[in-house]
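User: Thanks for the earlier help. One more: Probable Fe(2+)-trafficking protein. Can you show the sequence and predicted structure together?

Assistant: Of course, both are below.
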Amino acid sequence: MKLGKEAEGLERQPYPGEIGKRIFDNISKEAWQMWMKHQTMLINEYGLTPVDPKARQFLVQEMEKFFFGEGSEPPPDYNPK
């Protein structure tokens, strides 16, 4: 879905629950790697702690948007180096 082309799938479900199943069924390795880089940027720019339940909820929402919605945007003041 993310890349709009056929690509190699994931070897296993990368995340628990229903969203993990949707990702496994629909998302390629390449798109998952794109998400991992984007997620790292979100964690760093927003100063998130992944073990914090609110941070995890935010990341799941962004993951949903990234793969299946309008896309996950970087913070407004984000300046890639």
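User: Great, one quick takeaway?

Assistant: The mean pLDDT is 90.
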